[in-house]
Amino acid sequence: MQCKPLLPFLVVLSIISVSPAVDPQSRHSSNSSQRGTFVRPSSPDNWLGGAGNWSNGGDWSAGLPGANSDVTIYTGHDDVTLDTSSSINSLTLGGSGGLMTSTLIGDGNARTLTIAGSLTINDSGYLQLLNDTVTASSTTNTGYLDVSNGSSLQISGNFSNNSGLLSTGFLGGGGGNTLTIGGTLTNAYGATFYVLGAGDVANVGQLVNQGFMEIGSGTTLNLTNQPNGVTDIPVNSIWNIDGTFTAGGNNALATLTTIEGTLDLGNGQTTSITPTGGTLTLTGGLTVDSGSVLHLNGNLNDVGGGMATGEGSGNNTFTISGTLTMNSAASLELFGQGDLVSMAALNNSGNIDVINAGTLQVSGSVVNSGCIGQCGDVPISGGNTYNIGGTLTNQASGVFYTLTDDTVNAGSIVNSGFMRFDPGTRVTAGSFSFNPGAALGIDIAGANNFATLMSTGSVGLNGGLYVYLDNGYTPPAGQAFKFLTFSPGSLTGTFSSVNGFGENYNVIYDDSAGYVELVAEGNTGTVPEPSSFLLLGSGVLGIAAAVRRQLGGKL
Predict the structure, then answer these.
(1) Is 354 inside any structural domain?
(2) Boundaries of domain holding 88
(3) Residue 226: inside a domain
(4) DSSP string, 443-477
(5) Distances from the Cα of 158 to the Cα of 145, 205, 523, angstroms
(6) Looking at the domain assignment, is residue 445 inside a domain?
(7) How many CB atoms lie within 10 A of CB 227?
(8) Does residue 218 sit within a domain?
(9) Per-residue pLDDT tens for 234-264?
(10) pTM
(11) pLDDT per residue as tens digits for the range 470-487
(12) What total of structural domains would you count in the chain?
């Protein structure tokens, strides 16, 4: 799951405390007689500093705030408890810079604060609702605003969250909160928007997210005046969707067309996307997690982004009805156990890791000039499945590298690059064609534990054969490994070279019986250097770690 931004919440929580009602006489005995207990409200009306209750008129410069009051709470150290309901003209909390020093916090009882005009929370301001209702015409926030414990915040106009925190059910805890914004919520770069409390509902007219936002599990964000939902995930923005995200009650991502930032779908729901123009373009990050299902109706063009499934848990599904095209900086990683990624066709120049009993399914053909299989320094597990209905074409720069006990099914396989199959891998195809300059790697971990290839049709051999011994296994002289079978009489060609990395092997080609077999002849005591082609394979694997950074540090 996406790493959360590290705002200074520990500092915030260490500063904030909900204090009991404070007796003003204990702090203002020297001048309480001059102020009196009631002064007719006027505009402006400023808090005089320190800790105290909203209802104490003596703590205000113009007495208890009223309907015409422009209220400011900012002296450098303020801790005000909302212990009564009130109606005012405007409210400003805090000033610019520094730590949060001006706080207004509910007392836990149901209070109503009606603000006819604007609510402004500056850098050092903090507003926390605890079972309260606050209304305002517009809001600008660069501080902290938290709606908790069954509270309601209602903004009739726009909300500009410029660099602050806007949250429900977060700092104060407790769900059942409601956030209503009639206009546009702008969550700017550097700002954070959380909907986290159990059962929380946020109804927002329109949403512009350029910062970090998270819709928590069991919560809902509904866009009430944005019928087309979200069509672009802007650059540098992060969208964690662990709850329900709708536009007018419908899927808010239905016409998503570009992902330049990071989108993390972890709500365990089914999301369908039909991009405008038929192609979803990815330059940022896309993850499908926590048992979620993503259906893309169209093509996906990954021009340098990172995709992943199952970072938190497995059994995720990502289907693409069209073609997945990945350039050299693109990456796709199937992390979750039992994850399924399927598509109609695949054009890959990037890195595709299938590493935890996952399934990569392509109904049509695959053209690979990048890496597929084991492509990076990530935790790995075998038992993966590759189902390819058409031809798997592994081009000269391509690497196809399976893990232990993987299964590969293809209509046909044409290899001009490097293909390596770990012990227990079963490869089945209608035909095999190994071209000049190609390399085939077969891993052996025991007399009955090695990779096998089976063709239901013809086999054409050329290029190099590389034999790897795993888990410390050394075959005795005479041990045979029948690693390739085919229809009798359908073999053409032989391998141009055999490299056992110190072990000698005799290769038996039996066309009439339909098999190719390795027979161990013992150790020469000399381990030759791998060819430059095989070094290419290790280079491709090293690249994978770098391209995963496209996921914004998610991996």
Answers:
(1) no
(2) 1-213
(3) no
(4) EEEETTEE-EEEESS-EEE-SEEEEEE-TT--PPT
(5) 15, 9, 77
(6) no
(7) 10
(8) no
(9) 999 999 999 999 999 899 999 999 999 999 9
(10) 0.87
(11) 999 999 999 999 999 999
(12) 1
